[in-house]
């Protein structure tokens, strides 16, 4: 299931870009789309959000909306509460407020692992801030927890790609503020071409290599293949130099 990107709204004597909160369903047997008549209180109109399926429920997080309705008025808001859609009953469910919440954001990454929702990175224009934090949402307890992975993680960014392969998350690219004047585009942004791996089930060997790197331990007595792996873990993984972002 998917939530639509901003569409063109048609109103009497008025046509303008606006946000949407429609839900469409794709039947993969005949590749036909259907507009869902959803029950309950829907998620607020928005774009650049995430919608992640866990079981039979879709968890909508973040995105950019407008304070005064579905139309763009330069009064952006960034919701940080989860909205849940039940695909079996086509209903939006009410979720109680939680005491700990990540900052609202857009253009972040969201993925599921072991029945829980993870959110990484993103951008909040009202705060003028890019994120590189990792949060976990438990759909049973409806609670958030900030995760602090071992090792050196990505710099703050948005619009990155995160794919799950087994027990690992492969993160590639994204857009960040340019570290030096003149390196970015008109919005002072640059696109990355680096790669990071988040391992949910690291082996003892991996943990030992992380300790060698973290504490700058002597590697001269280690086997050649281990030294090569340590070098690979600490060498810049970019496939090309960062490039100027094409848009803000």
Automatic annotation (TrEMBL):
Record-level GO cellular component terms: cytoplasm
Listed GO MF terms: chromatin binding
Protein name: Kelch domain containing 3
The organism's taxonomic lineage, starting at the top: Eukaryota, Metazoa, Chordata, Craniata, Vertebrata
């Amino acid at each position: 299931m998917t939530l639509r990107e901003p569409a063109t709204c048609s109103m009497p004597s008025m046509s303008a870009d606006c946000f949407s909160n429609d839900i469409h369903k794709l039947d993969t047997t005949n590749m036909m789309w259907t507009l869902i008549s959803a029950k309950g209180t829907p998620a607020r109109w928005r774009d650049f959000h995430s919608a992640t399926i866990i079981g039979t429920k879709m968890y909508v997080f973040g995105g950019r909306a407008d304070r005064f309705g579905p139309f763009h008025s330069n009064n952006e808001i960034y919701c940080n509460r989860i909205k849940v859609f039940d695909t079996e009953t086509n209903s939006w469910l009410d979720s109680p407020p939680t005491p700990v919440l990540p900052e609202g954001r857009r253009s972040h990454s969201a993925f599921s692992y072991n029945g829980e929702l993870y959110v990484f990175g993103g951008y909040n224009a009202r705060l003028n801030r890019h994120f590189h934090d990792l949060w976990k949402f438990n759909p049973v307890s409806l609670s958030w927890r900030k995760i602090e992975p071992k090792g050196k993680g990505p710099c703050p960014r948005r619009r990155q790609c995160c794919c799950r392969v087994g027990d690992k998350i492969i993160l590639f690219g994204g857009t960040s503020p340019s570290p030096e004047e003149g390196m970015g585009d008109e919005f002072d942004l640059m696109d990355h071409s680096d790669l990071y791996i988040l391992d949910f089930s690291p082996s003892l060997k991996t943990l030992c290599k992380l300790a060698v790197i973290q504490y700058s331990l002597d590697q001269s007595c280690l086997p050649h293949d281990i030294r090569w792996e340590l070098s690979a873990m600490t060498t810049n993984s970019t496939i090309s130099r960062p490039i100027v972002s094409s848009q803000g």
